[in-house]
Automatic annotation (TrEMBL):
Keyword ATP-binding included in the entry's annotation: no
Lineage: Eukaryota, Metazoa, Ecdysozoa, Nematoda, Enoplea
Mode of membrane association: Multi-pass membrane protein
SMART domains assigned: EFh
Ranges for the Solcar repeats: 354-445, 452-538, 546-634
One GO CC term, this protein: mitochondrial inner membrane
Protein name: Calcium-binding carrier protein Aralar1
Subunit structure, as described in the record: Homodimer (via N-terminus).
């Protein structure tokens, strides 16, 4: 059979296997969180599916357990041997019948951290002995049932067999030895397949034979992208024959894919968009002796399948060639997953505009959440900054921020802490949205191969800060006047409200102090956003991923220096925007305000409310950026542009939740049963025939 036909066969069978049996995800993410099934649940389920009675006790047959209960898609008539083999994992007595005790113990086994190896061991055991061991015959019987075992039979006189079972093949091995045997069987089967075609022992095979081995004995290492492009890769590289070193390195690359990712993330410092050169990759691979230059060479040649013009590797390249079962499962369940463009090159002005609208919408929600959480702190900060301490004015109203907080609650009630929140929410949505959108937009323009220089980060942040002033200033001046309204009534003796503030200010008055807003917001954002981007990398895990806690900490920490250093212009802005009371100084502009405050109150006055400002801005941006990024992950839309660094890696599509809905009788460890059996295939390469001829 030609290699192209083998490729088509594998693709077709891969599609046919797109069933719950082939579910692939990291079982360890769930096994330690599953609650054990209760005895009542197990008894009820067992009674429902057990169809055989013997000596007054009910039992499950192999077909009951595999086909009816687990719903594994195995054709019981055509492949009864596969059904019996899979059921043997739960059959302690190995008599073909599963008792309730067996059923309960298997549920517990599925929750074990080494469930894959334990279940595989039980499948290979042919008899129940006091000392759990398997013989060479047990091992050969199971391997001969696999699809690759039929093509490349295990040779009884091979050195591999002698190492584990002795030259006379009489030695029996226990569980731990079996684990090593199963682990090493990968390489042995590949070597046996290579020898099968290298009949002259010349150390090389042709491309068709290479593809045939990869599509059969090593198909668990390939995803659909590699299946479709493997022969294309060989043709493009002008490979007529594949030497054994190249064959071994090719397989070694895929077996070490997780290590390759670690090296990439070490070079890119967690930035998943960074394009890494071969020289940098090799330099960082030196501490890992198991990574060879030939494996790195093959990796970069494979990456050229995605971008033929550049000899670099990005994390997206790993997504293309990575075996599906090694990809990380999404940390967050996406409520929406839309791909706006198939290729980044397809981005046009309309897509860019849609992306900005998308960011603006999410930024509005995030900004409103952040502002609401910290609004009481903001009110205290404003009143402290507005408080004049010149001797002529008399006794100060608030001794410190805590005193201000207590007096507001005492005189104005708890709702007094939220005075002015309505205009704040009306303005903070577009304010934060436009800041986040413009910052992301400008960063995209300066980002090349996932890298952006620090000066460009500063410019992007400054642009974001400048763009928000058109929304910030009207909101700020109305909010500030309402926040201090609790301290004084208007001329008629009534409380100051939103309507009276707007009438007093007028349209031009809404932009009073706008120059001071620029003076505060531009440096704040220029400091904040670069620090936030770098803090995310510091807090990212080994995979470059930021969880919710690291996102909040990054945003909070970045806000401390940004808010603290920008307190003086914030004080000037507040003084310009607040209506002066009788006896208080009035200001004609920024310079006049600065001079009078310095002369009348001293330099310390410029740092009034700095603590409240830091404790308001830091948590506010912590909440805002956390919500903003989580919304982008939850309502995921791929516009072909730059994703926020630290977002989760695109996840393998699974039907885990769908399985639970379809199988209300799967409790405790049985929720992982189908994924575990699938793992035996994807981890160990033990593919058993399951489908009828029509399905293939």
């Amino acid at each position: 059979m030609e290699s192209g036909e083998w490729g088509k066969l594998f693709i077709r069978s891969a599609h046919a296997r797109a069933s719950p049996f082939d579910l692939v995800f990291d079982i360890s993410l769930f096994s330690d969180r599953l609650l054990p099934a209760t005895t009542d649940q197990l008894k009820s389920t067992f009674s429902r599916f057990a169809s055989t009675e013997c000596n007054g006790s009910r039992f499950m047959t192999a077909e009951d357990f595999v086909c009816k209960f687990l719903s594994l898609p195995v054709d019981a008539k055509l492949h009864s041997a596969t059904v019996k083999l899979l059921a043997r994992a739960a059959d302690k007595d190995k008599d073909g019948l599963i008792s309730f005790e067996d059923f309960s113990q298997f549920e517990s086994m599925l929750r074990s951290p080494d469930a894959l190896y334990l279940i595989s061991f039980e499948m290979f055991k042919s008899s129940n002995t006091q000392t759990p061991q398997i013989s060479f015959q047990d091992f050969q019987d199971v391997v001969s049932l696999t699809e690759s075992g039929k093509l490349y039979p295990l040779q009884p006189d091979s050195d591999f067999v002698a190492r584990y079972f002795g030259k006379d093949r009489r030695r029996r091995i226990g569980y731990l030895d079996f684990c090593e045997l199963l682990h090493d069987f990968h390489k042995e089967q590949a070597l046996a397949a290579f020898r099968h075609y290298d009949k002259d022992s010349c150390g090389r095979i042709n491309v068709d034979q290479f593809c045939q081995i990869m599509f059969t004995a090593k198909r668990h290492l390939l995803n659909n992208f590699m299946v479709e492009n493997l022969r294309k890769f060989c043709v493009r590289e002008n490979v007529d024959y594949v030497s054994y070193p190249y064959f071994a390195a090719f397989n070694g690359l895929f077996e070490k894919m997780e290590l390759m990712k670690r090296i990439y993330l070490n070079v890119s410092k967690g930035n998943l968009q960074t394009a890494v050169t071969k020289e940098d990759f090799l330099h960082n691979a030196q501490p890992h002796a198991q990574v060879t230059p030939l494996e790195v060479e093959i990796l970069f040649k494979l990456c050229k399948l995605a971008h033929a013009d550049r000899c670099v590797v990005t994390f997206q390249d790993f997504e293309h060639i990575d075996p599906d079962h090694l990809k990380r499962v999404s940390y967050i369940k996406r409520l929406m997953n839309i791909q706006a463009v198939n290729n980044p090159a397809d981005r046009d002005a309309f897509i860019v505009a849609l992306e900005n609208v998308y960011r603006f919408s999410l930024g509005s929600i995030a900004g409103a959440c952040g502002a609401t959480v910290v609004y009481p702190i903001d009110l205290v900060k404003t009143r402290m900054q507005n408080q004049r301490t010149a001797i002529a004015i008399g006794e100060v109203m608030y001794r410190n921020s805590w005193d201000c907080f207590r007096k507001v609650i005492h005189h104005e009630g708890l709702l007094g802490l939220y005075r002015g929140l309505t205009p704040q929410l009306m303005g903070v949505a577009p304010e934060k949205a436009i800041k986040l959108t413009v910052n992301d937009f400008v960063r995209d323009k300066f980002t090349h191969d996932g890298n952006i220089p620090f000066w460009a980060e500063v410019i992007a942040g400054g642009c974001g800060g400048a763009s928000q002033v058109m929304f910030t200033n009207p909101v700020e001046i109305v909010k500030i006047r309402l926040q201090v309204a609790g301290e004084v009534r208007n001329g008629s003796g009534s409380r100051v409200g939103l309507g009276s503030v707007l009438r007093d200010l007028g349209l031009r008055g809404l932009y009073k102090g706008a120059s001071a807003c620029f003076l505060r917001d531009i440096p704040f954002s220029a400091i904040y956003f670069p620090l936030y981007a770098h803090a995310k990398r510091w807090f990212a895990d080994a995979d470059g991923h930021n969880n919710s806690w690291s996102l909040f900490c990054s945003a909070f920490i970045a806000g401390v220096p940004a808010a603290g250093l920008c307190t003086p212009p914030d004080v000037v802005k507040t003084r310009l925007q607040v209506a002066a009371r009788t006896g208080q100084s009035t200001y004609t502009g920024i310079v006049d305000c600065f001079k009078k405050v310095l002369r009348e109150e001293g330099w310390r006055a410029f740092w009034k409310g700095s603590a409240a400002r830091v404790f308001r801005s830091s948590p506010q941006f912590g909440v805002t950026l956390l919500v903003y990024e989580l919304l982008q992950r939850t309502f995921y839309v791929d516009f072909g542009g730059t994703r926020p660094t630290g977002s989760e890696v695109p996840a393998v599509t699974t039907r885990y939740d769908h399985q639970e809905a379809e199988n209300p009788y799967h409790f405790g460890g049985y929720k992982l049963a189908r994924a575990t059996f699938s793992g035996i295939e994807t981890k160990f390469g033990l593919y058993f025939p399951k489908f009828s001829a029509s399905a293939n």
